């Protein structure tokens, strides 16, 4: 589950948009994690990794750093990393597509609060267990397809190796027969 989403400008740490998921278990600590996310953004440099997952107690921060903007989420530890980064990429594409001209000129914190509904809609898609099952099925199908392609490639390579061996056998057999006949 995604508990917190924060979009912030890296140059000055200005929060541009944010959402917090209501959760009774996390409710009292969410502001502490939100402050940690803001601190994390403020400490980023141009040499920071563009993608990273960080352990924060029983939760994980995942962030995507792109074009001077940090997209960061807080999830539970069971939330798939691939799903987390797919979510971040989806949010990044939507946000940049909508606000790319204004990102570096705004001076007011949370200037893009109207982006909140897009974040919530995308969170529902990525938090839905049915989509989780579908994505796991897609990954499994891709693995099977990759294994099948790899196996076919292995067979084709073995076939080439066998044809080389079969071409060499008659020649070596004739040469051995020639040596045997002339040697006796």
TrEMBL record:
One of its GO terms (biological process) is protein transport. GO terms for cellular component: endoplasmic reticulum membrane; Golgi apparatus. Pfam families: Longin (PF13774). SNARE involved in targeting and fusion of ER-derived transport vesicles with the Golgi complex as well as Golgi-derived retrograde transport vesicles with the ER. This is Vesicle-trafficking protein isoform 2. Belongs to the synaptobrevin family. Keywords: Coiled coil, Endoplasmic reticulum, Golgi apparatus, Membrane, Protein transport, Transmembrane, Transmembrane helix, Transport. SMART domains: Longin. It is found in: Endoplasmic reticulum membrane; Golgi apparatus, cis-Golgi network membrane; Melanosome. Its main location: endoplasmic reticulum. It is a single-pass type IV membrane protein. Residues 6-119 form the Longin domain. It comes from Schistosoma japonicum (Blood fluke). GO terms for molecular function: SNAP receptor activity.
């Amino acid at each position: 589950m995604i508990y917190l989403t924060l979009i912030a400008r890296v140059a000055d740490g200005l929060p541009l948009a944010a959402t917090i998921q209501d959760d009774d278990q996390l409710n009292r600590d969410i502001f502490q994690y939100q402050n940690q996310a803001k601190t994390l953004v403020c400490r980023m440099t141009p040499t920071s990794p563009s993608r990273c997952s960080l352990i924060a107690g029983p939760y994980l921060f995942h962030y995507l750093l792109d074009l001077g903007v940090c997209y960061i989420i807080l999830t539970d530890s069971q939330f798939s990393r691939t799903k987390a980064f797919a979510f971040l990429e989806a949010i990044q594409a939507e946000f940049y597509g909508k606000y790319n001209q204004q990102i570096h000129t705004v001076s007011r914190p949370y200037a893009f609060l109207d982006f909140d509904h897009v974040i919530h809609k995308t969170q529902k898609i990525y938090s839905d267990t049915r989509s989780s099952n579908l994505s796991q099925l897609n990954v499994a199908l891709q693995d099977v397809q990759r294994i099948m392609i790899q196996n076919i490639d292995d067979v084709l390579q073995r076939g080439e190796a066998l044809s080389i061996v079969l071409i060499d056998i008659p020649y070596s057999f004739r040469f051995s027969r020639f040596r045997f006949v002339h040697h006796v």
